[in-house]
Each structure stands twice: as structure tokens, then as C-alpha cells.
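Lecture notes, part 5. Sequence design as translation. It can be helpful to think of inverse folding as translation between two languages: the language of shapes and the language of residues. The source text, in C-alpha cells, appears below.
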């Protein structure tokens, strides 16, 4: 991609010979990519690639002047693989240098599907071919043409019967481009609670532009999204809605189709669409779709008339790609803020408890983030905090009574646990030594009372065995996992308890259901119980307080009547503020702590994960990186993360008050790693968890 031209140097006279229109980006979007590259130390080609449609064909060449004996004619298109196979790598380079071939990247082509079409001829005699007759009749019922897969599914006929119908001349098979996943709005005007308030607020915000923080609660989120999109369409602009999960994307698409006026188009954008994303990308770039609802992969989607960007559930970690997953290792909030600055679009961050990285007063002043008025207050459940100090039981008598009372009233109780498995750790009863993963140095989790032990990070598994230190075979299970909670609650209550996790759903209609956080908090319950709140409060990372607060707040939000929490630290500020829904009180307690520690949002950090030998790492970090750091950049580490064979993973943390200083230091680390044999580095600037 051409970003500019040089005025000096050997290549200054090179000219742009041709342009692929479908692979061009608007200048302001290119500038967004450039700034993301500088601030996040993500290579510019990687960022630009994220703004292009998926599946770009970059290994294509056009033949300009074929050499004698070449099997290709002028203007033929040939892939790099075919050229290398015929000419060899050296021959390919020579042909390109001589101008005989030229790189010719192309936009990906939409997928095609097969259709069956009736021929304009007399009807064939199919009296003795019932399957073919069924196919022909169904074709006529569908107006003479239908997708082959649908035809075979509706009739139950085989493909052989269809081929015989084609042989008789009654039909023909053709390939057509797959219909883009653009959906027309229905104009049903689905009424959202508090819609009038949200509509007035959204119109003013969209008109003025810039970033906004909107602390919507519960069902208000839907009303806010509809209001933002409606105001954007009224202004003749396009709207982009970013959601953390595919399921929420599809739900919002359905909501907007029903709520918006007729005459508009809505399209989803996520990895599950396959090549259907190509059509949505093209429609957005050309202005042929009014609303796109997508996951983080849509954060850099080009729009012809950008009007608003709405980030739903802003603090959700799924808005940022993890290593090995599709998308940029940059939170969409940062992408949206850059687009607000450069594209003059209105950007909305929706969440009842936004991340402190945009709520902190200093950040709001710097980024000029304005807070919009929230809707009315929602009913809050009764809250019971059970002090477990001095108790060795997993479940208190208060918890048992709450479950039984809810069951007797015909209600449902959701029990929230942090971890899968039977126990979160296994230790020797004699000497106390814990079973540890040899790769990651993390406690192994027990699956079942006598089941295998597994590492939640790398998947390492081993059968229970003697203690490596003292040889004792007596093991003690500690911590409360989903399986253990389910088994013990079933015994305690005398009834079968259900289970909901990402991998398993069993007996979910039971009066008491145990599950992990995302699954339980995705529904509504008469009572919600957190039997081991300390597992959340004792997590790692400087943002553990913020994550715990959001958990307690979310648990209260889905509990209609009661929220019960068991803990050994009943006075913890994140717990008290979370169960009462007091976000301001939590922020007032947490922000000074982060300021004192020098962590985001009051400073910036870069997490460097090195992999290689200890000698290579120490040479790179101690001899080259540390001496090259600017004044004001603090380095912590290196710390060992885990070992795999002869390779060791290390973590180094860089911190500074200003992001450019951290970005420069991280860039230095990348260059040092690139020239150090046997050493690789992964850089994460301002990670969500430090």
C-alpha cells in the first residue's frame, strides 16, 4: 500500500503504475492505522491489513512480456506458487526484475453457490421417475429456480437424481454469487423502555460528534443502541456497532431490523460469516449498507459516510484480540477514539460500569470524553454478605436456607464459580506441597473427586499420584470448582443440581444451577449466589479490583430478589461497592490505588513476552534493552512464565507516564529481539491485565 512518495533516494522516481480500487483506503482511515501503529507497536502492515477485506489475494502476478517457452500469454494472471514451480525462486525474481511479470493483488471474490434452473422447454415425462418428478415440481413451486442445496434438502432426493434431471434437459445448473448478508429493516418499531429519553440524548450527541460515555444499565443498553443508530440514520450517515461476542452481534442485528424504519439495511460482520464478510466490507466502503454490527474484526471497517461508532459493553476483554486470534491486539476503545478524532464521528462507550481507563477524570479531560445522562434507577435485589471467617465449611447454613426458600417459592437459583473442575488446587495432606504444572508453574486443577489433574493454561494432564516431596499418597482438595460445588450442593439440598459451562449444559431446568460467570450472568435468576467470592478478589493483576467489582455488580443486576455472597473479607471496597451498585464509590477508592502504583490509567505499560534460551534473553535484555531505555521508563523483570523443553518464556514489564515513551522502548525491544538469534518477543502495549 502506498502511503506517500519519497523526495530523495534511489526510489524517488518510482511511479504508481496502477491502482486496485477495491483495495484502496480513505486517507483518514490510513491515518488512523498509522497512529495505532505508533501507539501500540503493531507493525503498520498488520494494522493496514486489518482495514482491508478478508482474503485479499496477494500472491498473484500479471504476465506483461512472456519469455519464449512460457505457457502463459500476455495479461494472463498466475499465482506465485505456479510461477515458482515453473521458474524456480531465482527465475521468479529475475522475471519480476526484468518487468516480464508484475505483482497484481486483487480483492477477494464473493463466494458462489450452485442453483438449479428450469429450462424453457416442454415439461418432460417423469411418470416413471418419482424422485426427478419431485425435484421438478419443487423447482416450479419456487418460480423455476432455487439453490441446489435447498432443493435437495426439501425433496430428500439425491444428487444423482438431480444430475439425471439435468441430463434429460429439464433443468440446468448454474453458479451465482452468494447473496450478501444484508438485511432490510422491517419497521416494526419495537418499543424500548425509556426510548424517548434516549432518542433526545442520542440526537444531540450524534449532531455534535466526539466521544461519549453512556452508563446504560440492563435493558437500557438496547434502547441506547437503537437511539444512536436512529439518530445517525436521520443525519444521513452510517452507523457501526461493535459487540464483544458473535451471539450479541446477531441479537442486535435482529433488534435493529425490527426497531428501525423501513428502507434501511443492516448487516452483521464476524468470523462466522466466512466469505460473506467480503460483501459487507464492500457495501460499507461504497455506502450500500446503513448499519454494520460486528465484533472487534469490524473496528477498522471502512465506511463511506461514517456517522457513529457504538462500543457495547466497553470494558469486555473480548474487544481486544489475544495472541493467535483474529483481530488486532488493540482494544476497540482505542481504535474508536482515533476514529472519533480523525473522522469526526460520534463515538459511544456503553456500560453500566465502564473501564477506569476512560472514566478517570484525567482521561476524560485529555480525550474530551463527555458523559451522557443515564436512564432511571433500576430495582436492586436484597443483598446478604456472609462472613466465612472461622468456618471450614464450603457452604454456610445461610446459603442452604436461601436455596431452600427459593426452591419452595418456585424460583431458580444461579450459583457462580470462577473455575471449572472439582477443586482449584490439590495439595499434599502431610507436607502441604501443591501439585504444580511443570510447564507453567501454575496449580493443577482436579477434575472429579479422583479424576485427572490438569493445567488451565497449557492443557498438561497427569493422574493423581504420590507427593513429589514426601511421597505421601494423601491429597487434599482446596478451592471450590464447579464440579465440586455441584456435587456437594446436590448432597446438601437432596436434589439434582444443574450445570452450565461453555462446554457443558446439563439439567438446566433444575431449581439450582451451578455455572461459570459468563453463563450464569447471561440470564436472570430469582437468587444469585457467590459461594467463593474470595477466588475473584484474590486474582492476579493490578485490575483485579475492577474485574471483581464488575462481577459483583453483574451478579446483582441479574438477581431479581436476592444476591448472597460468601467471603472471608466482607469489608473489601470492591465487594461492598459492587453489591450495592455504587460505581462512583468504587472508582473513588480504586483510582488513588492505581495512581500510587503507577499503572493505567495514570501511566502506560508494555508487556514483553520473550521466548528463547536464558543466555539469549539475558544478553538481549540486560546488555542491550536496559541501557537503551529513556529516562522515565521503568523496567521490571525478567520473570519466568513457563518452560517447554529447552525454551523458556519470560515476562518483562515497561512503564512510563507517557505512552510515546513506552512505545519507543517497546520498539527498541522488538529490534533487539529481531537481531538476537533464537529469541522471539511478543509486545502488548497497555494490556488490559497487568
Amino acid at each position: 500500500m502506498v502511503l506517500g512518495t519519497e523526495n530523495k533516494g534511489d526510489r524517488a522516481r518510482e511511479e504508481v503504475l496502477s491502482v486496485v480500487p477495491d483495495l484502496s483506503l480513505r486517507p483518514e482511515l490510513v491515518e488512523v492505522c498509522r497512529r495505532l501503529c505508533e501507539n501500540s507497536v503493531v507493525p503498520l502492515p498488520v494494522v493496514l491489513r486489518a482495514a482491508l477485506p478478508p482474503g485479499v489475494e496477494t500472491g498473484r502476478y500479471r504476465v506483461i512480456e512472456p519469455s519464449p517457452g512460457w505457457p502463459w500469454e500476455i495479461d494472463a494472471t498466475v499465482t506465485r506458487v505456479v510461477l515458482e514451480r515453473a521458474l524456480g525462486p531465482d527465475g521468479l525474481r529475475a522475471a519480476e526484475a526484468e518487468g516480464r511479470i508484475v505483482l497484481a493483488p486483487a480483492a477477494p471474490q464473493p463466494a458462489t453457490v450452485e442453483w438449479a434452473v428450469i429450462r424453457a422447454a416442454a415439461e418432460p415425462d417423469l411418470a416413471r421417475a418419482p424422485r426427478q418428478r419431485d425435484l421438478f415440481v419443487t423447482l416450479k413451486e419456487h418460480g423455476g429456480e432455487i439453490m441446489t442445496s435447498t432443493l435437495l434438502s426439501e425433496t430428500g432426493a439425491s444428487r444423482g437424481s438431480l444430475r439425471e434431471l439435468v441430463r434429460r434437459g429439464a433443468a440446468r445448473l448454474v453458479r451465482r454469487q452468494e447473496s450478501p448478508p444484508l438485511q432490510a429493516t422491517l419497521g416494526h418499531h419495537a418499543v424500548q423502555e425509556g426510548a424517548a429519553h434516549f432518542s433526545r440524548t442520542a440526537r444531540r450527541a450524534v449532531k455534535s460528534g466526539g466521544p461519549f460515555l453512556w452508563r446504560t444499565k440492563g435493558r437500557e443498553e438496547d434502547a441506547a443502541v437503537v437511539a444512536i443508530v436512529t439518530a445517525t440514520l436521520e443525519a444521513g450517515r452510517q452507523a457501526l456497532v461493535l459487540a464483544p461476542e458473535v451471539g450479541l452481534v446477531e441479537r442486535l442485528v435482529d433488534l435493529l431490523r425490527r426497531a428501525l424504519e423501513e428502507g434501511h439495511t443492516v448487516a452483521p460482520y464476524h468470523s462466522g460469516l466466512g466469505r460473506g464478510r467480503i460483501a459487507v466490507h464492500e457495501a460499507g466502503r461504497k455506502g450500500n449498507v446503513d448499519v454494520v454490527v460486528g465484533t472487534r474484526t469490524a473496528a477498522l471497517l471502512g465506511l463511506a459516510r461514517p456517522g457513529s461508532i457504538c462500543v457495547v459493553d466497553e470494558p469486555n476483554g473480548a474487544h481486544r484480540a489475544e495472541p493467535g486470534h483474529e483481530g488486532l491486539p488493540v482494544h476497540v476503545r482505542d481504535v474508536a477514539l482515533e476514529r472519533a478524532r480523525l473522522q469526526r464521528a460520534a463515538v459511544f462507550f456503553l456500560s453500566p460500569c465502564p473501564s477506569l481507563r476512560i472514566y478517570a477524570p484525567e482521561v476524560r479531560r485529555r480525550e474530551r470524553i463527555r458523559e451522557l445522562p443515564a436512564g432511571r434507577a433500576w430495582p436492586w435485589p436484597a443483598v446478604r454478605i456472609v462472613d466465612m471467617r472461622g468456618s471450614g465449611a464450603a457452604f454456610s447454613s445461610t446459603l442452604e436456607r436461601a436455596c431452600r426458600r427459593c426452591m419452595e417459592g418456585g424460583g431458580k437459583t444461579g450459583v457462580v464459580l470462577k473455575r471449572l473442575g472439582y477443586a482449584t488446587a490439590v495439595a499434599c495432606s502431610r507436607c502441604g506441597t501443591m501439585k504444580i504444572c511443570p510447564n507453567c508453574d501454575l496449580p493443577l486443577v482436579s477434575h472429579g473427586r479422583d479424576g485427572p489433574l490438569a493445567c488451565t493454561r497449557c492443557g498438561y494432564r497427569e493422574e493423581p499420584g504420590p507427593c513429589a516431596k514426601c511421597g505421601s499418597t494423601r491429597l487434599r482438595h482446596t478451592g471450590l470448582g464447579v464440579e465440586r460445588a455441584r456435587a456437594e450442593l446436590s448432597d446438601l439440598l437432596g436434589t439434582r443440581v444443574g450445570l452450565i459451562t461453555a462446554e457443558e449444559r446439563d439439567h438446566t431446568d433444575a431449581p439450582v444451577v451451578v455455572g461459570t460467570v459468563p453463563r450464569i450472568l447471561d440470564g436472570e435468576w430469582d437468587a444469585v449466589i457467590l459461594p467463593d467470592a474470595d477466588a475473584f478478589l484474590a486474582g492476579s493483576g493490578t485490575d483485579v479490583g475492577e474485574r471483581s467489582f464488575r462481577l459483583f455488580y453483574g451478579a446483582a443486576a441479574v438477581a431479581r430478589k436476592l444476591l448472597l455472597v460468601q467471603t472471608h473479607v466482607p469489608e473489601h471496597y470492591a465487594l461492598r461497592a459492587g453489591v450495592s451498585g455504587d460505581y462512583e464509590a468504587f472508582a473513588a477508592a480504586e483510582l488513588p490505588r492505581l495512581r500510587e502504583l503507577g499503572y493505567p490509567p495514570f501511566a502506560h505499560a508494555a508487556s514483553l513476552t520473550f521466548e528463547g534460551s536464558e543466555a539469549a534473553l539475558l544478553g538481549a535484555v540486560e546488555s542491550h534493552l536496559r541501557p537503551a531505555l529513556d529516562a522515565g521508563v521503568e523496567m521490571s523483570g525478567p520473570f519466568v512464565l513457563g518452560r517447554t523443553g529447552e525454551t523458556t518464556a519470560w515476562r518483562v514489564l515497561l512503564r512510563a507516564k507517557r505512552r510515546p515513551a513506552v512505545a519507543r522502548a517497546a520498539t527498541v525491544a522488538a529490534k533487539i529481539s529481531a537481531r538476537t538469534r533464537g529469541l522471539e518477543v511478543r509486545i502488548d502495549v497497555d494490556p488490559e491485565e497487568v
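The translated text above is only one of many valid answers, since several sequences can fold into similar shapes. The mean pLDDT is 88.
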